[in-house]
Amino acid sequence: MGVNRRPAAIRVEIGELVLDGFRADPARVSAAFERELARLVRLHGVPLAADGAVTVDALGGLAPLPAGLSARRLGQELARAVHEGLSGHGEVTR
Hints:
It is a single chain. By secondary structure, the protein is mainly alpha-helical. It has one domain. 37% of the residues lie in helices and 6% in strands. It has helices spanning 26-44, 71-86, and strands at residues 58-60, 91-93. It has a two-stranded antiparallel ribbon.
């Protein structure tokens, strides 16, 4: 029997999400962001944490987003950008 390498739980804590230049409702953006990030983590895990717990202080080098997105789309795109960073793409500060 193989060893199950998937963690029992994954916790992603985001201290602050700053949305300069966007007119979308922050509560709706946050809700869409949480739903999409949870979905992506369920589907793909967190590759940076494949060998155990990891703390990331900041993610950089993420693609810019168009200012005219709806709250739902903005939340989804932000979650995808963050997950890309957690997948090893972009600059990671530990």
